Amino acid sequence: MIFVVKVFKMKSIKVKNISKKYEDVQALNDVSFEVEKGEIFGLIGPDGAGKTSLIHILTTLMLPTSGQCSIEGLDCVKEYQKIRNIIGYMPGKFALYQDLSIEENMKFFATVFGTTVEENYDLVKLIYSQIEPFKKRRAGKLSGGMKQKLALSCALIHHPKVLILDEPTTGVDAVSRKEFWQMLKALKEKGITILVSTPYMDEAEMCDRVGLIQKGKLMSVNTPRGIVEEFEHELYAISSKNNYQLMNILKEITDKHDIQIFGQNIHFLNRNGEYSKESIKQDLVNKGLADVSILKVQPGIEDCFIELMRSNNG
After folding, report:
1. How far apart are CA 79 and CA 67, in angstroms?
2. Fold of the domain built from segment(s) 233-298
3. How buried is 29 (Cβ within 10 angstroms: 0-12 exposed, 13-18 middle, 19+ buried)?
């Protein structure tokens, strides 16, 4: 007799049918997803997508209009006090005390949670050690990257089970962004569950799974690779020495809704397979644009997001 053993992964965060309405604005519309223990889950979407509203509900700062959510089995509404003791929260805007030094901010937040910097130093050492040489400097005098490290250190000082970060890399330089994600991966190795929101599509690749959100609706939840594999259409990267002229001609000969600027290229979605590289190039030549490069490319997360947004808008 063969026994089949199913392995059930524990859920750290559960969001079920969450909606939030501000007067006439529907910020969240029936959002549901789960985050597994010890994973990095990215909530990806532009400004106004509903990311911060959802994070405020999860961190017990705001009540949902309807629906339920829990963290580590604790209800976010009924057991909000217990939740606040087991989560670390880093808001989108720097919220520490500007007039206190790095050291004073750390001690203050440790005291709030009934612990000390020394007790949990091993957890924050990787991050805090980078700013500790400047521990006497006031928080308001720090660079963006240093403020980011201080805020993360303060969010971790009580050794939370779940870390929730609202657009932590917005407004920091590319090097600091890269360093920050390296720090998050190191924290994941320590068993901390991480939920992070970001408007940067390229940061989806840093997550184990992502939820793509737009206008309060969750459009897809999958691994970054899984989202790309769901993309069903051919995609061409087209460029020329005069991309402005190229864009205008493509709008004439194709559906303008299938054209997007991506860096030095224009991405063209061959939605129904009615075009080929040869036919597109010939059409461009006929319109007087001969110096053109056309390559078939694999979609990125941003391509997938745009296509999902079109599909959801009908």
Report:
1. 15
2. Alpha-Beta Plaits (3.30.70)
3. middle
Q: Where are any strands of DSSP class E within 167-305? A: 193-198, 209-214, 217-222, 234-240, 259-262, 265-270, 292-296
Residue 127 sits at the vertex; the CA angle it makes with 126 and 133, to the nearest 5 degrees, is: 100
Query: Around 13, how many Cα atoms within 13 Å sit in the side-chain half-sphere?
Result: 30
Which comes out higher in pLDDT, residue 242 or 32? 32
Distance CA 145, CA 152 (A): 11
Rounded Cα distance between 234 and 294, Å, is 12
Residue range(s) in the chain whose domain bears CATH number 3.30.70: 233-298
Q: Which amino acid is at 21?
A: K
**Range(s) of the chain covered by CATH 3.40.50.300:** 11-228
Q: Please name which of 82, 66, 62, 72 lies closest in space to residue 32, comparing C-alpha atoms.
A: 66
- CATH superfamily of the domain spanning 11-228: P-loop containing nucleotide triphosphate hydrolases (3.40.50.300)
Report CA torsion sign: 130, 134, 140, 143: negative
- Given pLDDT bands bounded at 50, 70 and 90, which one contains residue 274? confident
- Quick one: average pLDDT of 180-185? 92
- Helix, strand, or coil (residue 75): strand
**% of the chain at pLDDT higher than 90:** 66
pLDDT at 140: 92
Alpha carbons 106 and 103: distance in angstroms, whole number: 5
Any idea what DSSP says for residue 169? T
Could you give the strand order of the β-sheet that contains 234-240, starting from the edge strand earlier in sequence?
Answer: 259-262, 265-270, 234-240, 292-296
Does this model's pTM top 0.85? My answer is yes
Tracing tokens 């709030």 back to the chain, one arrives at 112
